[in-house]
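Dear Dr. H.,

I hope your travels went smoothly. While you were away I took the liberty of generating a structure for the chain from your last submission, since the lab meeting agenda had it listed for discussion. I wanted you to have the full record in hand beforehand rather than looking at slides cold. The sequence, exactly as received, is reproduced here:
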Amino acid sequence: MGGKESKPLSLSYEEAIKRVSDAEFTRLKDAYKRTATLNGAITKQAFIREVLGEGVPLQLAELIFLACGGTAKGITFKDLLCSLVLLTRGNREEKIRFIFGVYASETGTHVIRSEMLRQLQATEGGYIPEILHKCFGQSERITYEEFKEWLLVHPDATTVTRWLLAEPCHVSLSNDLETPTFYQTLAGVTHLEETDILELEKRYWYLKGSSPTGKLDPDTLVPMISPPLPPMLAKGVFNAFDENRDNHIDFKEMACGISAACRGPQTERQKFCFKIFDRDRDGRLSKDELTAMVQALLLLRDEEQEEGSDDVCLGVSPDCVQRLVRELLENHDPNNSGFVTQEEYLMWTLHNPLSTALLDIIFQVCHIVLGLKPSTRAEEGEIVLGWLRRAETKTLTIGQFWYIINMEWWNLWLDYVNHQTPGSDSSSLSPSSHSSSPASSQCGSLKRTKLQKKSANSEGTVASDANRCSSTSSPSHSPRLTRRAATSPGPLLVPSRPPAIDNSPLVEPNTSKVMLLTGEGGRLKRNVPLVQGRDFVLVPDTLWKALQQWYGGAPALPRQVIHGRSSGEVELELYPVTLRLFRHVQQQTRTPNNSWVGVVGGYGAAALNSAPYYVTSLPNSTTTPPKRYLAYLAAFSRLATLRQVYDYLATKLRLRIEDIRLWYVRDEPAGMILLEEEDATLEEVGVVDLAQILIEVRNKDLTWPEEMSQIASTRLIRTQSSQGVKEKGVTGLNNLGNTCFLNAALQCCSNTHPLTTYFINNMHLYELNPDNPCGMKGHMARQYGNLMQELWGGGARTVAPLKLRWTIGKYSGNFTGFQQHDSQELLAFLLDGLHEDLNRVHNKPYIELKDSEGRPDTLVAQEAWENHILRNKSIIVDLFHGQLKSKVTCRVCSNESARFDPFTYLTLQLPMESFVYLEVIVVKLDGSVPVKYGLRLNSDSRYYDVKQHLHILTSIPPHQIMLSELANAQIKYIPMDEGRVRTVSGNALFAYELPSPTSCHSNEVRSASRSARDRHVFTHIQRSTHHSSPCLREAVGSPSHSNGTTESVISSPSSLEFNTSRSSLQSSHPSSHQELGSNKMIEHKDSSSSLPSSTSSGPPASSTNSSIQHDNDLYNTHKGFIIAFHRKMMRQEVYFLSSQKTRPSLFGLPLVVPCSTFATHQDLYQGVWTQVSRLVSPLPPTEAAGPNHAHDCDDSLGYEFPFVLRVVEREGLQCAWCPWYRFCRGCQLPCDDNTFSQNAAFLAIDWDPTALHLRYQTALERVFMEHSSVEEMRRKHVEPIALSDCLEAFCSEETLEYSCDKCGKVQQAAKKLQIWRLPPVLIVHLKRFQFVGNKWIKSQKIVNFPLREFDPTEYLASVPRQTIHLHRAELEGVDPAVYLANLQDKDNIFLEVVPENKIIEHIKGNFDDELIVKNGKPSMNGSVNGSITSSTTSPCSGTPRDGSLSSGEAGNKRRIRNGSVLYGDTLQDFHQHRLEEGYDPLDLKYSLYAIACHTGIMEGGHYVCYAKNPQGKWICFNDSSCKEVNESQIDLNSAYMLFYQRDGLSMEKYMPNVEGKVPFPKELDEESEAEYKKQCRIM
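The corresponding predicted structure, in token form, is as follows:
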């Protein structure tokens, strides 16, 4: 069908033009221009959407498009005009010929039976009318005459014929029915014109947009109007506007308030003032309110007086205020009630001009701040000059913006507003004097003179950005202005309205043609100094915005107030520092190489001998530096800090701040300076006007373009930094292409001070083991040592770790290419390589591992450690190696096997999330504010679990809950109960309460409903804020209408975290009358995304399923409820057909309205009103006090309900009852007692335009109550875990399959890991990356860990742990048994205090029974720090403990449980750390000195190191960037590796004795050096 060519029309273009009016032709032409494409035709899709509308069936619409002359390119205006006139105004003959063309063949001469049958089957929903056979008879084709004869007899044959041949036609070319617009409605009930309202709306949305809350609330409005209003009156002005007292001014209130305060009669303006003073809004003024009123009015009067007056402060004296209050009460309180009514206040204002100043200021505020356009030129002059006069009396404020206006335009404006028509009052304006000389200013103080002569910038704001201007009017001194008198003779010419403000003559032309990033408007001319009063005037920011709104104009020239250069006085900076910002030219992406060797080759062989300085631009370099171009101009305050500049540029250019660097590019020999001292100002770092600043953006592989160029250069130039000389060790590492994982690990090792001291002192050269077959020929140790000496040389800012990277790439293929790698894996390889290169054991002996064979742990551990150091001795072993105990116990025979293995780092698993967090907004039938609940469910939970949990929280039965996803104000998706719960970011799930099916048929409910409706007369509906009808509560008929949850749920947050276990869902229903605890009002933003559906096993048989299981269930007309959509009609200024003049638009949240079998139309209206009444603002409660300026708006709502209900289809746009060719938007349901016919599933709530504009509060649509479960579940979902929890999990027992030697087969066994020996430097690896579900995922879990005094004693094995506890008991003088008994750790069982040497004798068979002490006191003299004199008592007196040496078991070689804490008479130190003098070896305390952090995802994340240098300062090492940070600035949440060092560690004692040894050469051997250089010449 769509492939046919167009068919000729029976109506010519000339004839069509004759049948339309000029206005209709113009409208159609405008509509065509708006819809047509660039080729001048309307596409088929646009024709169907814009001309016919969405209601016409698609297949039929395509046929009509072809019949109207449409082709593949579209339809022309001539064809469209002819078609529209024919369809709407054609005669019967023309329409029949058009219908014939719809069904005719491609030739247009015949209608073929088969073709017409196929078309009708597609367009009539498969229905073929029987009368069609009479058309064709026995023929297969008919002519036009035969078709016409048949159609005249059967005009209702098809839907097309019923549409076009109906009399009158259901659609016309024009629609004369005018739906009043919002602006017309508001203009009709106020003193404002429609144009005024249009301008006010623009200003209103600007004011709302500047509010942090998105509302025009007191926090937003008060700073805008005070000054000039005194602070004591600002809140009163807000209250006068806020008629409905919702603490928010909507547009209707703002327009009505402005109407009353500015355009109404004098009485209405005074009534507005009365509301300002009536703080308690009781309709009368108390004595306190009168006192505040008089004080404020006297203050305003005094501010209006001239500065030279002697009685400036006389009127605001307390005595004067009290005297005036007494007089007012005496004269205007006839009943001596102590109050003044509104009428008496109005009488007082007739004879007392004190309120005149307030009226004038409010008049000015409404125009300048709120955006009302002055009605006359004289009024405009009074407003502007009065505002400027008031501003110039105020002192300058730091951070305040003033705007520059060209004096030429200002003079034109003065002539315009000062022009006096014949017979007018020449004193209508009160201008101030105007002169270009500062001395002529009537307020010519010293500060004023400085303001005219000096220029400065802002201290608190970075750039002169107009978008960042404060909205608060900050008055300042500006020149006084005079009215320009007409001095020319001859006829008096009326000055024309000034054109748009043109400030371009004040600004230097932008010859560079680049973008201005800041809003300063340009650089002011400096060739001829600009003089204030001669070349320009200064106006406050609020006044500039008003003038720009009224006249337009550009460029805006804001300038800011800052501190003076030398004095403490404030200044206005006319000339901010303009920066020329350069960017790098985008270069082609490098081809990735799969080996590090190839990567290194790209930097050139000259880099091999690079000094510890990195290179700047090199004109003679063989490697071309990256090209730069001038990209932007930006103006910043000379007092702006570098941090502010960085933040501004990152925000403006949409870059991450860590991905940009700023360079101050200067001529040689100064070179480039890296601007990195964040707290320094531009002035302090020497940045001058028009300075060249390079914005360097990090490459995708995390390299810096300048660094890459400089590393590959052949010449070396020292660079500078704004921070000056760096401390030793505070040296960055260049990123060589996604090598942040390497840099972070190297910086952590670099700040391991014992290791770094070892390499800096060249100790590694004495201990190289190049012949070690497990090593790297000493290359790793050499290159690492050279790098450490460069890092700690103190002369370099950054270093490129080229040789070390090449070495790692040579010996390991796991770290090649440009991809990101795991920093922990690199660290493990690095430490292992250093160990093997520095292994002091040159001939490793063969050692056979032995099983524990029942021997004590102390002996087995010592044996394993000695075997380890027989093969491994190095500085790495001394510092980083510890020992783990691994015990496996058979669960069948209890056979134990223990092994002791060395470790370099502890890898701690982080728990992966097995929960999903879900937020559900519950919408109840009683019209209450929706409540948002937070749920934390198992990851395999189903949607019926969600309903069960909501039942516990809300007491709504699960079968009365309908879960749904909303999009575009419609219910788009209903998840099935059996579907798995899926979370979509930024999307909330809605849960609608459904009516109870058992109560929908109650006759008593119906009678109660009618009686309740009778009470809802006009006044009740209009004055109420929320209606919960008794009939609706009865109809719901369930205890689900509680306003909150049970106290147990609120007070016990743990009960909100649910399991999938069905037994956990059993609970009693909470009371239906308890209050909702811990709720707060927040705003909700709708999301248009929907959850994917999945199927799985169904809910348990015991659960009651909801009747709504799928989207199609909504079409069931007997489901007990009906879905209602909020709808408004949008008027189109240009349209094609009458059906498209107004288009429906859905908004708000859909509603679920109870609809039983016996429901009447009025029941539906009442059900809707119950739920929407909270969205409609009530009439002001102070009606009894008399009329106010908003009553004329509200009285226009002369109806019972402010909406009508219409039956619609699922999309809410078309009628559910009428056929498409009627173009019906929905048949209206009358508000009567007739029973609803139940043949529609959806309703449209069509709001009355007046009610929608004046009473409907759109902001309340997105407001809901937040239940305490939301905050609690959010906290649980993201709450951090402690490092102690990870260590406990590491040391916890796990079950595995184990080949038991005693059982002789595989059995279930328990395995437990514990720390036996701690290393001096403990590395903790938080394993964030895990392979789950065939993919690598990262755990974002936050781990809390100590920064100092970390004591890992509790995670040691029992013997070394008890050694520490006995030592502490000794220090505290406590009995060891009592001390251990008081410990919470259940594993602290008191071991046999038997010397180790005696245990050895027992193993050999020489056991002495007298050594076993069961209830006596052992001798423990000679301990580490003294003797233990306290007795040791067995916890189980008289019963041998498990593992003790009893006489009955002396001859058996069963495993002694752990061994002893003693060797001889001394407590053993199992760790053997080399400490400084005075440190207790049994006091295990560690301090954190380095952290490797990872942010982002696994493939594209970034590593950063935080480390503490020898001076105790924390430094952030971010590749080449190094900056000092506080502890609070460390990113602890993304920690990946933790580096702890034992307190009191002696670095000197770990240095080897090299006396008499000969060091190896520092550099590589010639063969290796040649190989390295060869690889570097590849590129």
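Two observations you may find useful: DSSP finds 49 helices and 50 strands in the chain. The radius of gyration is 43 Å.

With kind regards,
E. W.
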